[in-house]
Amino acid sequence: MGSYLEELRSYFQTHNKQKEYVGHNSKVHTIGWNADGRRLASGSYDKCVTIFVFDGHRETLRKDYTYKGHGDSVDQLCWHPTHAEQLTSASGDKTVRIWDSRTHKCSATINTKGENINITWSPDGHTIAVGNKEDLVSFIDVRSQKIRQEHQFKFEVNELSWNNSNDLFFLTNAQSGQGYINIYNYPEMELVHSIHAHPGNCICIKFEPHGRYFATGSADALVSIWDAHELYCKRTLPRLEWPVRTLSFSYDGQLLASGSEDQSIDIAHVETGERVASISVTYPTFTLAWHPRHFFLAYACDDKDDRDRDRDAGTVKLWGLADRS
């Protein structure tokens, strides 16, 4: 394992350049790559979803289209797990929208009961789960575009995720100031495990692409990597000092990127927990996502305009580019 870790470190010593792209006129809350890695979507406080097209040969993004229609901030988005053209967005306007990136149209608007902040698409593609500020989680049937079931929780619900086999549903949450991962069987939604994961609020959760592990990030600034089958904590990453807001595994499951209010993004080797690389940032990191086929990391921070510090820059960055100098 040591030799592969050294290989990764030396790779990123020559692949540590980045480019910046303006996608919005306000802060970017959420980004995500589609299934084939040809498109990157971003959602913003400016109520819009922007689509970029990725050119792998040139290692560049090109702004393709901006979807308008939401009446409030777009807090989270995600793509269909296998259909590369479909994505969904959750907004404070009490709707969930499904977009088609071929036709550039909104193919469905689903009205929900509250201001939506978290969204995830089931691995089988049939269901979208959305959580709102009142800790209500709604399950939307994608075919009928209707809410199939709702669950009201009595604790603060943060992020949502299915496991890769689609039969368990995970919620990161806070109860009495402590961080928990609640695991429900799906679709019955009966609680099967509750893991006391962190001494602080458990904020985010991400599954490794092959489903072997998942990672959680917490208000205690720790990142934990868990065995997805045995449900034990394999290791914790202690390098950040601020609450962990966003996580992403690389396509091969070997790397885990973590973002927070720290002035760096940590990139860890999953097997050993060692740092592989670090990206210096000036502002808090809201969202990050590894490309599904290459070692490119897209991310967005609370960046300000260089000329006007009171204005959000609305930029998306792409890191991991070859040093051509």
UniProtKB/TrEMBL annotation:
InterPro entries: Tex1/THOC3, WD40/YVTN_repeat-like_dom_sf, WD40_PAC1, WD40_repeat_CS, WD40_repeat_dom_sf, WD40_rpt. WD repeats lie at residues 21-52, 67-109, 195-227, 244-278. SMART domains: WD40. Keywords: Repeat, WD repeat. It holds the Pfam family Beta-prop_THOC3. PROSITE patterns: WD_REPEATS_1, WD_REPEATS_2, WD_REPEATS_REGION. One of its GO terms (cellular component) is THO complex part of transcription export complex. GO terms for biological process: mRNA export from nucleus. Belongs to the THOC3 family. PANTHER family: THO COMPLEX SUBUNIT 3 (PTHR22839:SF0), THO COMPLEX SUBUNIT 3 THO3 (PTHR22839). This is THO complex subunit 3.
